[in-house]
Every structure is written in C-alpha cells, then in structure tokens.
Amino acid sequence: MVGLRHRFESRAGDVTVLDGVDLHLDAGDHAALVGASGVGKTTLLSVLGGLESPQEGTVRVDDHDLAGMSRGELATFRRETVGFVFQHFGLLEALTAAENVELAGSLAGAAAGPRRRRAAELLEAVGLVDRARHRPLELSGGERQRLAIARALMNRPRLVLADEPTGNLDERSSTLVMGLLESLPAGHGCTLVVVTHDATIAARARRCFRLSGGRAIEEAIPV
Ligand SMILES: Nc1ncnc2c1ncn2[C@@H]1O[C@H](COP(=O)(O)OP(=O)(O)OP(=O)(O)O)[C@@H](O)[C@H]1O
Ligand SMILES: [Mg+2]
C-alpha cells in the first residue's frame, strides 16, 4: 500500500507553497494532480519522490517514512521505489537510449545480464527498439518522453511520478505516452501520479486532486 500524509512549507520569498497538504493514495491508484501554474504541483511531486525533504509533516510511501530519512536513505528510496518522469530530470546525453535505461539498473545494483534483458524489454514496450542506440538528442520529444518512462520503470518502482508527461507532445504521442503510463497501475500494481494541465488527461485518472492555496482538494472526475 502507498499511503501518504504530508504537510510541507517551502519559502519562495515569503510564500508558503504547500500548507497542510493531506492526501492518501492506495496502491495501484492512478491520480491526477491539477492546479494553476506555480501552485506547487512539481514541489509536491518532489516531496513525494524524496527529491526534497518534507519540512513539516509526514510523508509515507509504503512503510517508508520520508521525513525521518537521511540524504543517503532518500537516495536509496528514490532509486528503488520511485520512477520519475520529470521534464527536467535529464536523460544523459552522452549515453544511448539503451544505456540510459540500463544505468538506472546499475545504480540500483542489478547484475549486467538481467539489466540488459530488462532494458531491452522496456525499450520494446515503449516502442523504441530501433532507437536503442540513439542518444537522447537524436530522438524526438515524444520518443524522449517514452525513453524517460522506460528508464523510470527499470527498477519496478512502487510509485511513478509524472510531471506533465505530455506537455510538449502532439495528440498521437500524447495518447501513446499516457497509454503506457496508465497501463502501470493495472499491470504492475504501482501507484501513478500525473501532473497535468490537460483536462482530458486528468479525466482519465481514477482520482483527481486540485492543488490550490497550498492544499490538495479531491475533485470528482468529469464523465
Ligand atoms: N527551489 C525553489 N526555491 C524557491 N522557490 C521555489 C523553488 N521551487 C519552486 N519555487 C516556487 O514555488 C512555487 C511552486 O512551484 P512549482 O514548480 O511547484 O509549481 P507548479 O505548480 O509545478 O507550476 P507549473 O504548473 O508552472 O509547473 C512557485 O511560485 C515557485 O516559484
Ligand atoms: Mg511544475
């Protein structure tokens, strides 16, 4: 189960970004996180994923209590438990697509054989087999986004956090990327949180939270 309760204050000047966010997700949930630009959606994902320590409150993912963790423990947590599909969370330009995916596995200590097989399997799943030797700069935006998903899944994360994964994509690539992400909760039992400005993408989630005034409020999914 992935359950999280969380209260966090970050100062941008003297602005509190998250002010008593309280949300709980079950394992296998697919949640959309929406809200105006600058309300703190990326910040919230960063705290959920252990990229930033919660300043106040409790963040729990499975039986990991993030607030009590050292930097090293957070790094291990990120590597083993979380898959990030973040636009700024860069793919390494010097590595090929396949190497980018494999690297996530080597960092988590996976042996070379299984690592290579898993990377090949994931590249196939995201439709990039014939781009395996390309470097990220030699890929289109949608292909890079799919590569980021493959890399995020390398270590079979319990929690996948996607920050505007279809932000710069055309409709077709966007549908492909969302299809891939949405297959995760059903197929792998992992929890998926997708930040989006796109109402039709939010409507595909099982639950939707709107971040506003530092709090997350659950909304009905439009039918
Ligand atoms: N490291 C930081 N230091 C100071 N302020 C920050 C920092 N990171 C974010 N902020 C501020 O926190 C607020 C929330 O930022 P965040 O990136 O979480 O917003 P967002 O909801 O993801 O917006 P967008 O939809 O535009 O991506 C913004 O006002 C931003 O300027
Ligand atoms: Mg953002």
Describe how the helices and strands are arranged.
Elements: E1 11-12, E2 15-16, E3 30-34, H1 41-48, E4 60-61, E5 64-65, H2 71-81, E6 82-85, H3 97-107, H4 112-125, H5 141-153, E7 159-163, H6 171-188, E8 191-195, H7 199-202, E9 207-212, E10 215-219
Parallel strand pairs: 3-8, 3-9, 6-7, 7-8
Antiparallel strand pairs: 1-2, 4-5, 9-10
The structure holds adenosine-5'-triphosphate and magnesium ion (MG).
The site of magnesium ion has 3 residues, from helix 1.
Describe this structure in words.
The chain has 223 residues and is an alpha/beta fold. The chain has a domain at 11-91 and 158-219: P-loop containing nucleotide triphosphate hydrolases (Rossmann fold, 3-Layer(aba) Sandwich). The protein is 35% helix and 17% strand. It contains seven helices and ten strands. The chain has helices at residues 41-48, 71-81, 97-107, 112-125, 141-153, 171-188, 199-202, and strands spanning 11-12, 15-16, 30-34, 60-61, 64-65, 82-85, 159-163, 191-195, 207-212, 215-219. The strands form three sheets. The chain has a six-stranded mixed beta sheet, with helices on both faces. It has a two-stranded antiparallel sheet with strand order 1-2. Helix 6 links the parallel strand 7 (159-163) and strand 8. Helix 4 (112-125) packs across helix 5 and helix 5 runs parallel beside helix 6. The two termini are 27 Å apart. The mean pLDDT is 87. The structure holds adenosine-5'-triphosphate (ATP) and magnesium ion. Magnesium ion binds next to helix 1.
